[in-house]
């Protein structure tokens, strides 16, 4: 039986012709004797800032660190509240918690995965300091609505673009904003060989504060101006990202083609909801996420057909033990988020996925949806 893995980095590198260049970049760094804060990092930071249509890029040890340092650099701290999406990966919440602030969740919109901007006003308090919109699964949030809201209340905005490398909002890059955090985890649209992240900004002062924070609070060795941390993207990972960056737009185009085929093939199938795309958004499809009330059975059928799937995200953050007692009632307190947690099902997608594998996924999903619908009659 043919098998379609959810995501295979070895196949990505082989099928897209990047493995030899990655090998050469790793060897070059290994022989250079410079492994931190060197020329590879400088080159990648400049290239990624330009790609994002922005001025500065400060790379960090992880996407979580990028979010945390951006919030810290913008003055968020103990006693503050930060508005976050209820439906998102836990790193968005953890970054807020790491500053000493409290995450305040907002539900997704009707039949949407994204932050419902119409609900923002309802959660503002005198302690609210910032809002973190998440461009989830590669689809941009309505940033104009977020910016208007933040402007009315004097709030900082830190965009979580960990899944949205290359996406566009009303024609401009996600990453062209004031403070935009990315992750370079291996499975991202732009991923390295291990953890990594970055904050992209047009504010030179903010960029300088971020460089201090990521390097023990020091510009020069042993002169610690602020209480910083150690969170630096190393030279090897920067060099690998520089190999991949020129290919990113092409890879995203292939993701869009796969997503388009899925949406076309699944239209009208009983018990399935395919992802929507706003007319002002250029989605980059980090994940292709179906919704079905028959998720467990659907997942079992797809596994039998050789199709791997994942769940993004099956446990709502407010119901996780880490966030018990955060002031959100677990029984129906965030019903849209809890419904999504029980319905989401992510299919294989990526630039390396050949047409034969795409059609295998299509056939498996169609057969499973029709069989489950017939069994329910």
Describe the structure.
- The protein is an alpha/beta fold.
- It has helices at 9-15, 19-32, 39-51, 63-73, 90-98, 143-153, 204-214, 235-244, 248-266, 295-304, 335-343, 355-376, and strands spanning 56-60, 81-85, 102-106, 128-131, 156-157, 159-160, 168-169, 172-173, 180-183, 197-201, 218-220, 223-224, 281-282, 288-291, 344-347.
- The model has no long low-confidence stretch (mean pLDDT 95).
Termini distance? 30 Å
In percent, how much strand structure appears in the residues? 5-15%
Order the strands across the largest sheet as they lie in space: 1-10-9-6
Number of strands: 15
Summarize the model shown.
The chain is of the alpha/beta class and 377 residues long. It has helices at 9-15, 19-32, 39-51, 63-73, 90-98, 143-153, 204-214, 235-244, 248-266, 295-304, 335-343, 355-376, and strands spanning 56-60, 81-85, 102-106, 128-131, 156-157, 159-160, 168-169, 172-173, 180-183, 197-201, 218-220, 223-224, 281-282, 288-291, 344-347. Helix content is 39%, strand content 14%.
């Amino acid at each position: 039986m043919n098998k379609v893995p959810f995501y295979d980095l070895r196949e990505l590198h082989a099928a897209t012709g990047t493995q030899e260049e990655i090998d050469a970049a790793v060897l070059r760094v290994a022989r250079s004797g410079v492994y931190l804060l060197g020329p590879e990092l400088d080159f990648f930071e400049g290239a990624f800032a330009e790609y994002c249509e922005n001025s500065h890029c400060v790379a960090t040890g992880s996407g979580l660190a990028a979010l945390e340092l951006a919030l810290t650099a913008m003055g968020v701290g103990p006693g503050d509240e930060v508005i976050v999406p209820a439906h998102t990966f836990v790193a968005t919440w953890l970054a807020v918690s790491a500053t000493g602030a409290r995450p305040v969740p907002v539900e997704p919109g009707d039949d949407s995965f994204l932050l419902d901007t119409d609900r923002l006003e309802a959660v503002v308090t005198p302690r609210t300091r910032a809002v973190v919109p998440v461009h989830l699964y590669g689809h941009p949030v309505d940033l104009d609505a977020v910016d208007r809201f933040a402007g009315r209340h004097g709030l900082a905005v830190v965009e979580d673009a960990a899944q949205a490398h290359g996406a566009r909002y009303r024609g401009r890059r996600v990453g062209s904003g004031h403070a935009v955090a990315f992750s370079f985890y291996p499975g991202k649209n732009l991923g390295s060989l291990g953890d990594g992240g970055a904050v992209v900004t047009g504010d030179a002062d903010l960029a300088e504060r971020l460089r201090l924070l990521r390097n023990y609070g020091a510009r020069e060795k042993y002169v610690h101006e602020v209480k910083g941390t150690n969170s630096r993207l190393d030279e090897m990972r920067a060099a690998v990202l520089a190999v991949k960056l020129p290919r990113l737009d092409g890879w995203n185009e292939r993701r869009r083609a796969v997503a388009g085929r899925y949406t076309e093939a699944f239209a009208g199938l009983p018990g399935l909801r395919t992802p929507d795309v706003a007319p002002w958004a250029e989605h980059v499809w980090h994940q292709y996420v179906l919704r079905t009330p028959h998720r467990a059975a659907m997942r079992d059928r797809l596994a039998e057909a050789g199709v791997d799937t994942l769940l993004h995200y099956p446990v709502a953050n407010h119901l996780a033990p880490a966030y018990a007692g955060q002031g959100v009632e677990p029984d129906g307190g965030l019903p849209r988020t809890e419904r999504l947690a029980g319905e989401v099902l992510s299919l294989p997608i990526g630039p390396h996925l050949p047409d034969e594998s795409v059609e295998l996924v299509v056939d498996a999903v169609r057969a499973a949806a029709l069989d489950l619908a017939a069994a329910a009659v």
